[in-house]
Amino acid sequence: MSDIHIDDFYRDSAKILVRLYATFPTPITLYVEDISGPDEPDEFGLHHPRFESCFSTMIWLAQHDYLHFDELLRKEAMDRVVLTQKAFLILAGSSLANEPHNNVPPEAPPSIADRLNTQIAQLRNALNEGSSIQLKEAITNVLSHPNVGDSPTP
């Protein structure tokens, strides 16, 4: 049995982080529909489960210190949302494995290779490729990254 809801979580997380990185450090209003796609509430005004899942992903990322927002606009959006310092440093940093990935040409100058080997580049590449496996790997790398600024335990 496939865990489609987990694949959706990976894709939504990647889209959210890429969108916020593109506007960093400027806070934006992030609409759920911009991430999950159009939603048509049912006759009772309830959102589609896919929309609800995307909204929950946004809340989860905030609860785990990847983004900060000032207020919720109902269940439609987050207002004045921005990456946290932790998230920015993880996304701007090199991939966790410190190995060049497939999207880094061997002849690339070091400055370009370094930029293509960042976490944000891996997320963008995974979204462009559309591969669930690449998205899982890219998001897992971001979420399992050691917390920036935390001192190692002795």
UniProtKB/TrEMBL annotation:
Protein name: Uncharacterized protein
Organism from which the protein derives: Candidatus Marimicrobium litorale
